[in-house]
TrEMBL record:
Keyword Hydrolase assigned: yes
Chain residue ranges for the region called Disordered: 210-233
Keywords of this entry: Hydrolase
Compositional bias annotation for Gly residues: 218-233
PANTHER family: FRUCTOSE-2,6-BISPHOSPHATASE TIGAR
Xref: InterPro entries: His_Pase_superF_clade-1, His_PPase_superfam, Phosphoglycerate_Mutase, Phosphomutase_MSMEG4193_put
Protein's organism: Streptantibioticus rubrisoli
Protein name: MSMEG_4193 family putative phosphomutase
Length: 233
């Protein structure tokens, strides 16, 4: 079965502002994110990618655009199932405010029980289920057209990629906050009929995200960032 290259979108304006964007329209890449997207094509130049699948959200489409411009032969698709988690009433709010909500600790410590409030809010379990189902179906589609050794790229979001990686590792969803994927990082999974193999996790091709950083201004200093890490400064 194929190898899937999971790319998180480059740093967005919402990441830079500490806002949980969710499905808010008009959230694109900031200057750093645009530079990350421009560099992505070179980082992936040696990989025999056969297709690109993207979340429909603007920040993902902007991330894959330089790659598609450099390799116009690549077919491109969108899939709502790998779109961002639907955060309901949390959408568009500052992370500093959300850290005071009782649900924050559930998301941190017991995410399999978390359901985001308000109209359209979904559970973390539902988010993982739709995303994993999408990857499995794309695996079969790519294999049918390009063979079992094919490789394709999926551009998605932090929590989505963490949930897919947790499934590949056989981790309970309650442990997925132990994973971190930086903006424009690459996570690679090789699927086989027996088991998936995690080949890369959150690889940015640089080490700017490794040095210790000041404590985040929300929750505890060890809390995971809902929606995904905001990237190195």
């Amino acid at each position: 079965m194929p190898i899937v290259i999971l790319v998180r979108h480059g740093r967005s304006t919402a990441n830079a502002d500490g806002v949980l964007a969710g499905w808010s329209p008009g959230v694109g890449l900031d200057e750093r994110g645009a530079a990350q997207a421009a560099a992505l094509a070179g980082r992936l130049a040696d990989l025999p990618i056969t297709a690109v699948v993207s979340s429909p959200l603007q920040r993902c489409r902007e991330t894959v655009r330089p790659l598609l411009d450099a390799r116009p032969e690549l077919p491109s698709h969108t899939d709502d199932r790998i779109g961002e988690c639907r955060y309901g009433d949390w959408t568009g709010r500052k992370l500093t405010e959300l850290a005071d909500e009782p649900l924050w600790q559930t998301v941190q410590q017991h995410p399999s029980a978390a359901v985001f409030p308000g109209d359209g809010g979904e559970s973390v379990r539902a988010m993982q289920s739709r995303a994993v189902d999408a990857i499995r179906e794309w695996n079969a589609w790519i294999e049918d057209r390009h063979g079992p050794e094919a490789m394709y790229l999926v551009c998605s979001h932090g929590d989505i990629i963490k949930a897919i990686a947790a499934d590949a590792l056989g981790m309970h969803l309650d442990l997925f906050q132990r994973l971190s994927v930086e903006p424009c990082s690459v996570t690679a999974i090789r699927y086989t009929p027996v088991r998936p193999y995690l080949l890369r996790l959150g690889d940015t091709g640089e080490f700017g995200g490794l040095p210790p950083r000041p404590s985040v201004p929300f929750g505890g200093g060890d809390d995971a960032v809902v929606g995904g890490a905001t990237g190195a400064p």
